[in-house]
Design brief:
heterotrimer, A mainly alpha, B alpha/beta, C mainly alpha, B: alpha/beta, 10 strands, C: about 0% strand
Chain lengths: ~350, ~300, ~325
């Protein structure tokens, strides 16, 4: 063999430095245009800058591509600009929301937030007095009770659709979808009419958890179904071929194989309900002190605390509301990221 | 259905009565003799120079150079996974749609590198058409809209659409079958008709080269024969490159045959030559093993 | 063993497996667990009807068509059935208006965003953006409400004034008296932001299912990306996207807290989207609930029933459309 020169992989279809330079120039040109145009005309404000920039960029890009490549690619360039506008409009609010919550919320964060409740304080007191303990513990209890109710039901629904596959697969799929569209306030009214008025006649954490379960079951059922569908069929056949009954196969082979996926389903379910406000307002009574018993007495929760602080409307109370939202947001973020990481790891292995 | 099974039987008979090497060699020779005019070699239309292809870190195609002459049909044969499809997809730059794909080397169309910076890839694909393994007419378009889809997609203007429509369907051998229902949807045709519709669709933008990636692999033998006739008609006016698993087909339709093989590593071209020679007097032992059906 | 010669084929043996007891119990438990969704939906319908029945009977159709909500007590402090009126037309109009504004704003943005993610974004950008959009779908609604009230409202008021100045000749955009705060337009904006992630992810899924061979066929004919999208992706995904938009509509109709925080709930039919008065059924329930007496609570239950049936209908239709489009080739 003769010695070969080393051939390196190339991607000639990627844009070349020259093309990138042109794009950057068009971008800068559009920025300059928007700056000049807004300064020279009575237009003003961020919106004007943004719109002028967008139209200038699209126009320059169009002209450049039209002159160098023709009409088809010029239209493609416009399409690219427009879809980029679409995604920026879609994600701009989230950036603004995150920034707002952090900037306004951190002022209300202090250590005693996690060690005291509001038993002795009102929401208009200075921010360093009182805390969120009752709300955090209340939300934890609500979530826990709701999990206890909806995890079995959600997973049984998923098992029915993927393992038992009885007559009702289609109707149940439809019903689960319909249930995921039940407005949270309707879930609250339902528990009010079916549980609080006829039976307990008093607000309780349990009533809130019942309403939250209604909202949580569809999330868990659908995510679990997706997860169970990913379990390869040979695994099931292997279980049955070894002489296992169906229920043993499901309980000892299929569900354990899907374990991490089912945990993801639970996490997503928690994220769905942790910040749910309307049913909590209707059902839990929202106490100001730590209450460990979901069956009696009003129970505080983060959404209730945020709502109440916001409604009072003084400077201190609104800061409290933002601090509460910051805590809630961190919880949701942590849940969401862990669900992502878990499902990522699952798909890789 | 009956025709189809008969055709299949005929093929089986042909295969069983004669030793394979000479049989395929004869088929190829017959084709060469029966051409109205000997393959009109009009110069090199498409050249591949030192093509390498990667998917991620995996090298799937190594150092492939091949010339395709205008007015000829070149068949690419070889076992599955030897890089034939990857190779023809590098020719019209469809390779780059696969995430993580990379390549090296040059593809020259009329002497110009299709991968050169600043080349408009859509123009390349207009000049190098492609027919896929599975017939894929656009289901939301009628037969005539399908044929003319390329004009619309690439924003080309043409003076007389009806003439072009008829011409393309005629060249694809479909005109007589569909001329009364041009407004029907593409999905209403049979598999073989759909594939000829796709060929007509490729022809409408007047490509210089037509790539065919196992165009008959999902069709019955009867439709296969029709497509092969179409290929023969077309071959006088354009460069055709066809990937096929069917050696009979390669022998029936092509002027040149290239044999690809992957021995564990990346795919390489083992041998290329006039089809008759590849099937009757292959130079490489591996080619002979393959064309005689000893493996693959 | 020699069988008697006969031209008859042997009768087919019936293969029956009698499931074991454990399996039957298992199937029974799973099935009843799965039917819980039916049970819950049925119970919601039953209890809301049961509680709201007296109001629905006394008000009749007026409950849906009337737009007055007034509780008149007689001398003894009991509710006076002759003069008391419960009609939710104003709030129904508000519900539909806000949700429609939301969809009109959210749909194009979502479709464009989905197209960007599927066909234009480099893989690394795509991964991050998809995660960001999904995260947004998990945000609690109270967060959108407060953000909408404190951050979006000032800008949105300014935009509303611009719209009024340049498009004020259209009856929809008239504002009289000039109150721009807490209008249905702003509520619709907040709702749009809430449903954009939902519609985007459905649109993305639908576009993702576009058959690859059609996409390749378009590219092989020399199509640019945009020409390919118009010829292949949009026709394929159209009905799925419509279904996704309807799911978003159902979601927007049932939203309570976010609307309550940004909308000035006034009990009147208001079609002027920029005018600061409006409401929706859900936020009205929350508003009236605090000070409602037992009879008014019954009326609120009936309102909840109407909302439940409305969202159920919209959702079911959406589900049908999405599922039908997913299965078919076209």
């Amino acid at each position: 063999m003769t010695d070969k020169r080393v051939v390196r992989p190339e991607k000639p279809w990627k844009s070349s430095p020259k093309q990138r330079l042109v794009s950057a120039l068009i971008f800068l040109g559009a920025m300059l245009t928007s700056y000049l145009l807004v300064a020279a005309t009575p237009m003003n404000g961020k919106l004007a800058y943004f719109l002028v920039f967008f139209f200038a960029f699209t126009l320059f890009d169009f002209i450049f591509h039209y002159l160098t490549r023709g009409i088809a690619l010029a239209k493609d360039a416009v399409a690219r600009a427009v879809v980029a506008l679409g995604i920026s409009l879609a994600v701009a609010p989230i950036v603004s929301i995150l920034a707002t919550v952090v900037i306004r919320g951190y002022k209300g964060i202090h250590l005693s937030l996690f060690t005291t409740d509001m038993k002795l304080n009102s929401v208009s007191d200075p921010i360093d007095q009182g805390g969120l303990l009752h709300a955090i513990s209340g939300t934890a209890i609500l979530v826990l009770v709701a999990l206890l109710i909806s995890v079995p039901l959600g997973i049984l629904t998923a098992v029915y659709m993927t393992e038992v596959k009885g007559r009702f697969v289609r109707p149940i799929k439809f019903l689960v979808q319909a249930m995921s569209g039940v407005p949270s306030i309707v879930a609250g009214l339902f528990i009010l009419s079916a549980f609080i008025y006829p039976i307990t006649k008093a607000y309780s954490g349990f009533a809130g958890a019942l309403a939250l379960s209604i909202l949580m079951i569809p999330t868990i059922a659908r995510t679990s179904e997706e997860v169970l569908l990913l379990i390869p069929n040979d695994l099931r056949e292997a279980g049955v071929a070894l002489g296992g009954t169906q229920w043993r196969t499901v309980a000892m082979v299929v569900v354990p194989a899907a374990r991490s996926g089912l945990v993801t389903a639970m996490i997503l379910g928690i994220a769905r309900i942790a910040g749910e406000t309307a049913p909590v307002l209707l059902l839990t009574g929202g106490g100001d002190s730590v209450n460990g018993n979901p069956f009696s007495g009003p129970m505080g929760s983060l959404p209730f605390y945020i709502w109440k602080s916001y409604a009072v409307g003084t400077e201190e109370s609104v800061t409290r509301a933002w601090a509460g939202i910051l805590v809630l947001l961190v919880i949701v973020l942590v849940l969401f990221v862990s669900a992502r990481v878990m499902s990522e790891r699952r798909t890789k292995s | 259905m009956n025709d189809a099974s008969n055709a299949e039987k005929n093929m089986e008979n042909a295969m069983s009565t004669q030793p394979l090497v000479s049989s395929l060699g004869d088929v190829a020779k017959n084709r060469f003799d029966s051409r109205s005019a000997p393959a009109q070699v009009q110069g090199i239309g498409l050249e591949a120079r030192g093509i390498h292809a990667w998917f991620g870190d995996r090298l799937v195609l190594e150092d492939l150079s091949l010339d395709f002459w205008s007015g000829t049909v070149t068949a690419l044969i070889g076992p599955s996974g030897c890089g034939k499809s990857t190779f023809i997809r590098t020719l019209n730059r469809m390779h780059e749609f696969i995430p993580g794909a990379a390549m090296a080397g040059h593809v020259l169309l009329n002497g110009e590198d299709v991968y050169a910076p600043g080349v408009d890839v859509t123009k390349i694909r207009l000049k190098i058409g492609m027919v896929f393994q599975k017939p894929n007419p656009f289901p939301s378009m009628t037969i005539s809209e399908n044929v003319l889809a390329g004009l619309k997609l690439a924003q080309l203007k043409v003076d007389n659409k009806d003439d072009l429509l008829e011409e393309c369907l005629e060249r694809a051998g479909l005109w007589t079958e569909v001329k009364d229902r041009l407004g029907a949807y593409g999905g209403s045709l049979s598999g073989g008709q759909q594939q000829r519709l796709c060929i007509a669709r490729s022809l409408a933008v007047r490509p210089e080269v037509l790539l065919m990636d196992e165009p008959c692999s999902s069709l019955d033998p009867g439709s296969t024969l029709k497509i092969e006739e179409t290929i023969s008609h077309l071959s006088s006016s354009m460069t055709i490159i066809i990937v096929t698993h069917n050696m009979q087909q390669a022998a029936r339709v092509s002027d040149y045959t290239a044999f690809f093989l992957s021995e564990g590593g990346p795919g390489r071209m083992v041998e290329v030559g006039p089809t008759g020679e590849i099937f009757s007097r292959p130079k490489d032992q591996r080619t002979e093993n393959y064309v005689t059906g000893r493996f693959g | 063993m020699i069988l008697p010669a006969s031209s008859q084929l042997p009768a087919k043996r019936e293969i029956t497996t009698k499931p074991r007891l454990s399996d039957r119990v298992f199937a029974w438990i799973v099935t009843s667990g799965a039917l819980s969704s039916l049970l819950i939906l049925g119970l919601i319908f039953f209890f809301l009807t049961y509680q709201g029945f007296s109001v629905l009977r006394s008000q009749g159709l007026h409950f849906i068509t009337g737009s007055n909500w007034q509780v008149i007590l007689d001398a003894a402090g009991n509710i006076d059935p002759k003069q008391t009126e419960f009609g939710i037309a104003a709030m129904l109009v508000g519900t539909i208006l806000c949700a429609l504004i939301a969809i009109v704003i959210a749909l194009p943005i979502s479709v464009l965003a989905a197209l960007f993610l599927n066909f234009f974004a480099p893989p690394s950008v795509k991964k991050i953006m998809v995660a960001v959009v999904d995260l947004m779908a998990a945000f609690p609604s109270i967060l959108f409400g407060l953000w909408g009230f404190f951050v979006l409202m000032p800008s949105a008021e300014y935009w509303a004034k611009l719209i009024n100045r340049y498009l004020g000749f259209i009856p929809f955009f008239q504002v009289e008296p000039p109150i721009y705060t807490r209008s249905p337009f702003i509520a619709g904006l907040v709702l749009a932001i809430m449903v954009i992630p939902i519609i985007t992810s459905i649109a993305r899924e639908v576009f993702n299912q576009t058959p690859l061979d059609r996409i390749q066929a378009a590219y092989a004919l020399g199509a640019t990306r945009w020409a390919m999208i118009r010829a292949v992706v949009l026709p394929y995904g159209r009905s799925g996207v419509i279904g996704g938009a309807m799911l978003g509509l159902g979601r927007a109709m049932g939203e309570t807290v976010a609307v309550y925080t940004v909308l000035n709930v006034v009990y009147q039919i208001n079609w002027h989207v920029l005018l600061g008065a409006g409401g929706n059924v859900a936020s009205m329930i929350l508003l009236k609930f605090g000070e409602a007496g037992p009879d008014e609570i019954k009326a609120l239950m009936a309102a909840g029933l109407v909302l439940f049936l409305l969202t159920l209908a919209v959702n079911s239709l959406a589900d049908l459309i999405v599922r039908r489009s997913g299965g078919k080739g076209r």
